[in-house]
Each structure stands twice: as C-alpha cells, then as structure tokens.
From TrEMBL:
GO terms for molecular function: DNA binding; transposase activity. Residues 6-165 form the Transposase IS110-like N-terminal domain. It holds the Pfam family DEDD_Tnp_IS110. This is Transposase IS116/IS110/IS902 family protein. GO terms for biological process: DNA transposition.
Amino acid sequence: MLVLFIGDDWAEDHHDVEVQDATGRRLAAARLSEGVEGIAKLHTLIARHGGEELEPGQVTVGIETDRGPWVQALIAAGYRVYAVNPKQAARFKERYGTSGAKSDKGDAHALADMVRIDGAQLRTVAGDSGQAQAVRVVARAHQTLIWERTRTFQRLRSTLREYFPGALTAYAGLELTSTDALELLIKAPTPGEAAKLTKQQITAVLARHRRHHRDQKARAIQAALREPQLGVTAPVAAAYGAAAVAHAKLLITLNEQVAALEEQVSAHFRAHPDAEIYLSMPGIGEITGARVLAEFGDDPTRYTSAKARKNYAGTSPITRASGRTHSVQARFARNDRLADALQRQAFSAINTSPGARRYYDKQRARDSGYNPALRQLGNRLVGILHGCLKTRTHYDEATAWSHHATPTTAA
C-alpha cells in the first residue's frame, strides 16, 4: 500500500516540507508560503507523488505544533498529523550528527524520518470538537491574564517597598490587587500625598466599590497612611510614584479583562456537552472545570485507558530503575496548566468529598507530604473522571470510593 510521510518545519510566514515514501526515499522538497496558497500547493505536491489511488489517511505529517489554521487544514484534509514535541525532535536529530548544524530543510527531513520510523511512539493531534477548542482558547487566555496580573502585582509591591512601604500596610485590609485600593494609590502615589487624603475621599472610593464597614476601614487606612515612616527625597518619591501609578493602572485594566474573560469561560464551558459531568466531580467549579476540559480535550479516542489519561495529566509517578537503583518520582515534564487545575481540584475536593478526604488522610498517614498526597488524590480523581466520561455518567460518591471505603468490623 502506498503511503507518504511529510516533514513540515514551520515558521511564521512559510513552511519547509519534505515528502518521503515508505523506504525513506525523498520524493520532493519545497518551501511553501503560509496561508491558502501554500496549503493548496502542499495538496498538489501530495497528489503528484501519491497518485489517484492515495487516500488521505495514507498521508502522515510531522510538525512541531498542534495549533493554528495550517494544522487545522491538514486535519480537515484527512491526513494523519503528529504534533512532535520540539525536545523530541531535537533528540531525534542528534542521530544524524553531534556538530549542532541546523537548517530548515534538514529539520523537515528529520521530521519526515521521525514520523516514518517512530510514528508508533508519537501522539497524533487530538480531534477535539470546535466547542472544546473554543473552551481551550478562552480558558488559556483567562489563566494567562491571571498570571500576568500576579507578575504585575509583584512589580508594584517591589516598587512600593523601595519608597512607600506604608502603603502595603494601609491597603492590606483591601488587598492591593483590588480596584479600590489601586484607585486610592493612583490618587495619592507618594507618602506626602497619601498623608493628605481625607476620610471623605477614602470613603467615597470605598463606597463606589460597595465595600462594607466603609467608615471603619476609611479611618484605619487614613491612620496607617499618616504613620511616621522612613522616606526618600521628593524628586525620587515622585519618580517612584509615576512608576507605581503605571503598574496600578495596568492592574485595573487586567482586573477588568480577567472578569470579562471569566464570563466567556463560563459561557463556553456551559455550552459543552461534557460540562455537567465535569461539574459533578468534587472540587470542580466552572473555571477549574473549563481548564481541565480545555487541556484534556474531548476526543473520545485520545485516551485508551485511565492510565493514559493519568500519564498525560502528569499525576501518575514515573519509575527510574537502573542496576540496583530503583526509585519512584513525580512527573515534572507535564502540562503545567492541567497540573495546576488538578491540584486546585484536589485541594477543594478534600473539603467537599468524604471519600477524597479519607484517601488524602490515608496518604498522609503513610508519611506522604502535603503536595505528594494532593498529587496522588488528583491522580485518583483523574481516573474517576475518565470512567465518568467513558460511561457518560455523573460522579457518584459511593461508587467512586467503593474500593477505598473503611471496612466495617464484624460484630
């Protein structure tokens, strides 16, 4: 049976491709432009060397990404597409030589060789539905903005510690990332200006954001801002104040966009047919559920077993055995977004699920640390989720932990 193997080394505006037959003989090599014209030329190239009898499923493509219109076009054409991890590709190319030489044509040749020789060891791009892809886009964007907000806050906090540490104390009760605390900081960014804030000005900002106990909080903030503290010269304070205002305004914008994206995450997640199954799991709300769904995807053929899903999640341990050395360790090469979501789920589950709590306590009793015990609980929850998705049933507390229930003592 005729088969073709294609290596696709992609760049922002072009693709270097190589077409091989089953013996590894190079049939063609070309540089194609990104876009409709380029993908059309690739189809023509495949048809020229495959002939009329070639079916789309007999074409295998290796490319170092799993996203973008080009990859979606390859999948839509019916080709078998492998998203090769760049680290795997780099290790594979070392068999050609150790000089470190690199070229786009050479990379395309290596990718074609890789999917031809080691295709059984690679994972095809998941055939997720459009709804799952939409959830992935908004869930990742939402989480990225939260990470960016955290980084911006750390920069602001570092700046305040250098010239105005009293602000950290004064606004601690509001949380400095809150919009009302940031507005007060913008209104009075230097120690001298902050000491002149009146109780009425502070109360007005708190009232606009519907804070409870406004008078009491306003008095506490005013008193803290007027406490004596070490300072810097006026020009330096003004310069620091300008930097603090810039960070504060950026945080306000990030707060607004995080809230807006959160609504989008909930809306897209709720529209997915698997949402109710995810929400039935302990420790999962709409945001965490959307993140887990986004990273697992909804391709029913992607995970052949619960173990395969656990391995992808990075919750299952790995064994290192060589000679007399044998150790079991946590996986650190994993999807960090998924690992973070599953850690949050496990943390919440021990407070909402008696079975999860017993399982967690059992791990701690075996001298497992806090994080290892949560990771093992997360591993168990991934297995339960896999069973629920496979059977299309909601989570049931008794069924999920029947093998881990405390045996009753016979009378």
